[in-house]
Amino acid sequence: MRILELIAGFAVAVALIASAASRLNAQDAVALRLTDPPANGIWIDGLDLSKASIRRPRAAPGQAPPPAQTGQAAAQARAGQPAAPPPLTFSLGGAVYAHAVPLISDADLAIDLKGKAVRFISMVGIDDATAAGQGSVIFGVWVDGKKVAESGIMRGGDAPKMLTADLTGAKRLMLAVNDGNDGTGGDNADWGGAVIIMTPDGTKPEIATVPVEAAPTIAPSRTAAPTLNYPRITGATPGRPFLFMIPASGDGPLTFAVKNLPAGLALDAKTGVITGTLKQSGRTAVDVTVSGPTGKATGKITIVGGQNSLALTPPLGWNSWNAWGNTVTDAKVRASVDGMIASGLARQGYTYINIDDVWEGPRDAGGEITTNANFPDMKALADYVHGQGLKIGIYSSPGPTTCQAKTASYQHEEQDARTWAKWGFDYLKYDWCSYSQISRNPTLEDRKLPYRVMVEALQKLDRDFVYSLCQYGAGNVWEWGTEVGGNLWRMTGDITDNWRSMASIGFQQTGREKYAGPGHWNDTDMLVVGMVGWSRGSRPTQLTPNEQLTHISLWALQAAPMLIGADLSHVDPWTVDLLGNREVLAVNQDLLGKAAGRTSSDGWLDVWARPIADGTMAVGLFNRGPEAEAITVKFSDLGLRGSQPVRDLWLHKDLGGMRDMFTATVPRHGVVLVKIGRPSGR
Predict the structure, then answer these.
(1) Which CATH class name applies to 227-295?
(2) Which residues contact residue 63 at a Cβ distance below 8 angstroms, ignoring those fewer than 6 apart?
(3) pLDDT in tens, 262-277
(4) Using one digit for the tens of pLDDT, what is the confidence trace for 401-416?
(5) Which pLDDT score is estimated for 173?
(6) 21: Cβ–Cβ under 8 A, 6 or more apart, which residues?
């Protein structure tokens, strides 16, 4: 009986505590909507947020503008005076907040607490202005490196939640928002009434800058001894020109020898470049020997002849857009070719030199497209690229004009294809752009049509063209890209060199891996490492070193095309090692062609994995959060069990045998990329 009374008493106490907590939360929720802060409180939006990653600028704390302001602004406009933007309104669950922090998705905010803070309180959710069901985010709070609160996935229309944290004695507060693994569309995340309660001595917190880490140590991209790199497979249509540089590196001079080369092909023993024309279809294993002053390396490459034998691994190369934008010239392309050779990246398998938009001139009297003054002789440029053992790509649009309003291919598809073939091109990026003028409300068949028209034109040529569909993922292009002849297809909008852009593209690809494979690849856009700048001059990428490792690791795991978007005439050694890591490229170029999928995620920590042709698994442990975290991958999630060897691919270092799981501490926005398992036959 006494036990029952104690249990009943305990239940009553718990209920009273819960009731008291509920009343306190209700009081806090009301206080967060007021104009004035609680006692000793500092509104976070009252701090200097000028460098914060907020969703939109705030002219003033978020109060609805009085009606008179509209008339005043109109009068100022008539007088030619700039009108101050009205203050913005933020609303969660029907409650308007005078103060809020609209932190963008896949971003975080660091606050120096000076060791004088007591408590953090905020309501969180997707702004009411977002359509119900749209957007998906997760909010998190870290105190001195430890996650202390999170919201779970929240979607548009969900009731807001309160997040609180004890800050007694704490030095740093981190607020973060991640997308819900489906991209950032509609992710209008609000920290409603976000406030820090300080000690009564008047100390104020400050927005802090998270220090950029030093570039992590990674393995060198080349060794003195001869090494056969990747890809180890290439293909072409019989009867059409064949060109392939054997990807091998080492101290030179190197010499090359092959056995069992298919009929119609010949090897230049000094350059390792194979040229000619395949005589027949078929699959041939070719023995390769690479010799140098310090030794020799042997291995096999596979040459495939037949229809649909292009892009058997994801294309590796360079594209002009992220480096030069609409300032691209013949000279800049040649400099990039020279940089690709001098850096050694060409010997790591980077093959394509692709010219993006703004090479075009007008059409001549016969309707044939010409080049502008920046490209005086396109055939001579193509010959220069081929002379270095590389291939060259061109750009156009199915509409009347390109994205930069230059001449495009609408109603000239066959004529343009013949011209590109005459010049000697090997690759076409075909960008939707102004085709929306032709098809304003396209059906799925309308989206397919212009790509069908061009592929039919390409198939009539006497040259092979790798065919890149660029239309930003509209109509789920990954589901039908192969059907219209595409070798790769863009999945998203344009990438830029910041964490939010790169992460929102890379981490939203869940479930699309099944559409990738030899000859047809999911394209997550060009790389944004090294010296970039688009049309505004060359500058270093804004991605931190760890974010760059995440970028390359994700693209490698997902079997994405890897097209360098940097100025290769100025490339530093660490970036060369980043782009030229042969074990990472081996994952991207694996013969099996199985793209990685997400095997686990808690919204902040992801594990992605793909099977490798040798029977092992390539695994990426990704930390999308604002602080270093330990991440564990369970072997059972990979189809493995027991003790398995683990190798760090960025370091080229064996980590030893691990049983049932592998755990690593991963830095903020960083990755640990490993290979787990025993190769078949060992």
Answers:
(1) mainly beta
(2) 35, 87, 89, 98
(3) 999 999 999 999 999 9
(4) 999 999 999 999 999 9
(5) 98
(6) none
Same fold flag, 227-295 and 598-676: yes
Say how far apart CA 269 and CA 128 lie, in whole Å.
67
Strands (E), 222-277: 227-228, 233-236, 241-245, 248-249, 255-259, 265-268, 273-277
CB-CB contact of 167 with 143 (8 Å)? yes
- The C-alpha atoms of residue 224 and residue 294 are separated, in whole angstroms, by 7
Across the chain, what does the average pLDDT equal? Answer: 92
Classify domain 598-676 at the CATH topology level: Immunoglobulin-like (2.60.40)
pLDDT digits (tens, 9 = 90+) for 26-41: 788 899 999 999 999 9
Cα separation, 252 vs 61, in Å, equals 65
8 A C-beta contact, residue 460 and residue 414 = yes
Residue 345 is given by DSSP the state G
> Counting every residue, how long is the chain?
682
The CA distances from residue 77 to 73, 97, 430, in Å, are 6, 29, 43
At residue 505, the 3 state secondary structure works out as helix
The Cα-based distances of 439 to 24, 400, 448, 467 in angstroms read 57, 12, 11, 22
The answer to whether residue 658 scores a pLDDT higher than 70 is: yes
The model scores a pTM over 0.85: yes
**490 and 528 in contact (C-beta within 8 Å)?**
no
CATH of 316-572, one of 3.40.50.1360, 3.40.50.150, 3.20.20.70, 3.10.580.10: 3.20.20.70
Per-residue burial over 247-286, b = 16 or more CB atoms within 10 Å of its CB, e = otherwise: bbbbeeebebebeebbeebebeeebbbbbbebeeeeebeb
- Residues with active-site annotation: 431, 494
Over 50: is that where the pLDDT of 185 sits? yes
Q: Does position 137 have pLDDT exceeding 60, yes or no?
A: yes
Distance CA 628, CA 522 (A): 30
The pLDDT of residue 471 = 95
Those residues whose C-beta lies under 8 Å from the C-beta of residue 286, and which sit 6 or more positions away, are 258, 259, 260, 261, 262, 300, 301, 302, 303
- What φ, ψ does residue 76 adopt, rounded to 5°? -65, -40
